[in-house]
Amino acid sequence: MSIEVNGLHFSYGNGKKRLTILKDVTFSVGKGEFVGIIGNVGCGKTTLIKHLNGLLVPLSGNVTVDGFASSKKEVCRKVGVLFQQPSKQLFCKTVFEDIAYGPSNFGMKGDELEHCVHDAIEKVGLSSDILGSSPFSLSGGEMRLVALAGVLSSSPDYLVLDEPTSGLSTFYKERLFKTLELLRQNGVGIVLVSHHLEDVLGVADKIVYLTEGKMVFEGTPEEYLSSLSLPAPEITVLMRELSSSGLAVKKTVFSVEDAFNEIVGALSEKRG
Amino acid sequence: MIELKGVSYIYPNGNKVLDDIYIRIENGSFTTILGDNGSGKSTLIRHMNGLLKPSQGVVSVCGMDTASPADIWKIRQTVGMVFQDPHSQAVGATVEEDVAFGPENLALESDEIRLRVTNAIANVGLECLEDSLLMSLSGGQLQKTAIAGVLAMVPEILIFDEVTSMLDSDSRSQIIDIVRQLNKRGKTVVYVTHHMEEALFADRVIVLENGYIASDGTPWDVFREIYASGRKVPPHLELAFRLQDAGMISPDVFPMDALSLKEEICPSR
User: Fold this and answer.
1) What is the mean pLDDT of chain B?
2) Number of folded domains that form chain A
3) What is the pLDDT of residues B76-99, one digit of tens each?
4) A82 and chain B: CB distance < 8 Å anywhere?
5) Cβ of B165 and A263 within 8 Å?
6) Angle at which helices B235-245 and A256-271 pack, to 10 degrees?
7) Which Pfam families match (chain B) (predicted)?
8) Structural domain harbouring A61
9) Of A211, A269, B70, B241, which has the maximum CB count within 10 A?
């Protein structure tokens, strides 16, 4: 059971105005797997994730979700997508109505719907006190989490998030990642699209790196950090520089904790 | 100069977002405002050009009271604002048309409009894209166009509200360089961000928490304070502070980036 992307090509426009966005992209997302998609703005990340729940159909190649072609209606419920701008995903008068919108359209009502909405708001770490508020009266971070609750209320098997941390403060970012970790433990396959390397490397099982629509890397975070041709987090850059200067430190470290231990160990040894 | 004296703000739903704020922004300074979502950052800066009027207290811009209808036009010309989403600020079809929109609405002479547009576009380095359609631009190029549009109004004070939050790291660096250059050329800058590392370039950092000022000082003082309270600071600074606390590097250095920290740990020969 997985999302399978095989030889995906996609272009906007046609003839001389054709703009090719994705070129032969192939990867998979299993249940409970966390895949990070990295690349600069304009590399095709957003176009790629629109293929994962059938919002776009491949020009060639194919995308399947648990065996269904992505254009099939079954896929809409299996793959939940959180877009970059939450204000474009919120449209009801109250937070409750917004979160309830998906499941009520799938036929849920009464106590079951009430329970589902409370469960979703709890999952994202927000208080149920805001259920009666307008989603547009909330802060940017709260709006994003409400939009996420609206996606989770339909219990997707796979969750796709497009730059979910942009505009989020550290507090809300940490809350978001706690929620994602819980979902992953419950078997939800997660695709996180971001241009913030540090956000992805610490949580993903697998990294996919796109440049101008081409997949130039697929592998573990450790393999990603070992590749000198790919952009690296600033702590990894520091460790590479220290290593080049002759300090005996591991070059693939990107967390402050690991870097501190490596540097203290190396300096202590060097200074005797 | 912008001065807020005892400013509180309560939204119509009764939500108090700012609580007795005193801030004085000096001419030519570079002030960064940090804070969690919902801490009151956007509400605060919307008081600085009269988009919001305080529920209590006084906000003055170069001596003009933002609550005075007679002064509001002059205040809006003095304080230019650039917002988070560049798409929502685009009004023209091309870069040139978009940047010219403000000066054209001031009914200036065409030579003056041409001069302002050319200067503004040069200030953000978009000369080669002057005739490009906005719809063909990247997010970073669109944000530069938005900044140029504000510069064409020749404001003395520039306020940037999370202008890099939708951009990748390359575009972010370019926008920060532009903001720093504008400050060096004499513009007063108030810069709101979630990215703590962007605050390192400021003269002063103000941290808002639940509508009040939690910290106010140099980046060094504020980041030390944040670190001491157990909260996150930029990764290279957290590493520097930990190495300082462990006696591994000098306690007096404040590395601006990872490569400066590398020089402290292992100086080049």
Assistant:
1) 91
2) 2
3) 999 999 988 888 888 888 999 999
4) no
5) no
6) 40
7) ABC_tran (PF00005)
8) 2-231
9) B241
